[in-house]
Design goal:
Layout lengths: L6 E8 L6 H15 L3 E9 L5 H11 L3 E6 L4 H11 L4 E5 L10 H10 L4 E5 L6 E3 L2 H18 L10 E5 H7 L10 H11 L4 E5 L1 E3 L8 H21 L18 H30 L1 H24 L8 H25 L4 H27 L2
Parallel strand pairs: 1-2, 1-4, 2-3, 5-8, 6-9
Antiparallel strand pairs: 4-7, 5-7
Helix pairs in contact: 5-8, 9-10, 10-11, 11-12
Length: about 375
């Protein structure tokens, strides 16, 4: 989109914010007028407030045509963002918390990569080494632990899922929003997980951030809800229910990605091998080498297949998913048969068994990589 013609909607979700709404919007308007080169509009998304928030929002909208008031009958930050973003006709939709804890100097770096087309989603990060943050130890600890969980489980690249400072290209948002189920605080995490899962580019901006001591966020209950959301997303990813058809917005892979695929396949293979070997050693004396191998390798088969599909070959569409899974399982079964026959020939000699496992597992992995790359995921 031409930068000179780009438009940005900045959504400010609010619930019972009569004390700070007017002053925060005034600060935001002042910043946009002096330091923001694109055409903009502020949307106050009122989450069923019961105080004078609606009255103040109406007054602000009446005094300035660049301010709009969107009233919702139900609470939930995710619900507010969904409604405001779906109704937007701007090129980029963004949001910031009403307390303006995030420094507004980060707004232009947040939206610029989206307007240029370089990125699809942009997030502010309080956990970047370049960020300047002032907040209490409890919030800091919970935030770091939560984002570490996301990196360990989903291997995400972004550092901070819950900073109230994000932007999305509107054409991308229209495709992602139907796939996002949460209507509350986990909405942010779900947005980022689904975006990255579907190959969209997420741009992260270091921010200046000052903790709001009057924040109404219930830290403990919100953290528990987020963990339940993480569990739900694991299930969706495993079942292939987080895929979004992006059409022309899908970023095309490199013409030859052999180097990255080789390294990723190797890392996944090492992790799977260590798990299988642990199971083999634990069960060998009880049930014999052949059956210990069968159980050990089978235990990692589905996870290995999913990880290679997701990260090595970056396939997210459900198209031909059944055929690909069946083809992979056939290769797995043939590899397992070969390993089992070789183990049966040396059964009883632990050293020989481990040598056979090493050779046959390595050979099977090499053949599986060639097969997956040249035929299944070509």
């Amino acid at each position: 989109m031409p930068a000179s013609l780009a438009t940005v909607d900045i959504v400010v979700p609010v619930y019972n914010e009569e004390q700070i709404l007017a002053s925060s919007i005034a600060r935001l308007v002042d910043h946009l007028e002096t330091s923001f080169p694109f055409e903009w509009r502020i949307v106050i998304a009122n989450n069923a407030s019961t105080d004078r928030t609606a009255e103040i929002a109406d007054s602000l909208a009446a005094d300035d045509s660049r301010i709009a008031h969107l009233h919702l009958d139900q609470k939930g930050r995710g619900r507010a963002l969904r409604a405001a973003w779906q109704a937007s006709d701007a090129d980029v939709v963004a949001y910031t918390d009403v307390d303006l804890s995030t420094g507004l100097t980060g707004l232009l770096p947040l939206v610029a990569p989206l307007i240029s087309g370089h990125s699809d989603v942009a997030v502010g990060s309080r956990l970047s080494s370049a960020s300047v943050v002032a907040r209490g130890p409890k919030r800091e600890l919970i935030s770091r632990c939560y984002n570490l969980i996301l990196r360990l489980i989903f291997a995400v690249r972004f550092r901070d899922a819950q900073c109230g400072f994000k932007a999305v290209r509107t054409d991308v948002a229209r495709l992602l929003l139907p796939a996002i189920e949460d209507e509350a605080w986990f909405f942010d995490t779900e947005l980022l997980l689904i975006a990255e899962h579907n190959g969209l580019r997420v741009h992260e901006v270091p921010v200046d951030w000052i903790d709001d001591p009057d924040s109404r966020v219930a830290i403990t209950s919100t953290a528990l809800d987020d963990l339940r959301g993480v569990r739900r997303m694991v299930g969706r990813f495993i079942r292939g229910k987080a895929n979004v058809e992006l059409g022309t917005l899908q970023r095309q892979p490199l013409a030859d990605d052999f180097g990255r695929q080789t390294v990723t396949f190797g890392v996944i293979g090492v992790v799977s091998t260590l798990i299988s070997l642990g199971i083999f050693l634990a069960l060998r004396d009880e049930i014999g080498a052949v059956w210990a191998n069968v159980i050990g390798v089978t235990a990692t088969a589905l996870g290995n297949n999913w990880a290679n599909r997701r990260w090595t070959f970056r396939r997210r569409s459900d198209q031909d998913r059944t055929w690909r899974l069946a083809s992979t399982l056939v290769v797995f079964a043939l590899s397992l048969l070969g390993t089992s026959l070789a183990l049966a020939a040396v059964s009883g000699n632990r050293g020989a068994e481990l040598l056979v496992l090493g050779i046959t597992w390595a050979a099977a992995a090499l053949l599986r990589f060639v097969f997956l790359r040249r035929w299944v995921y070509r």
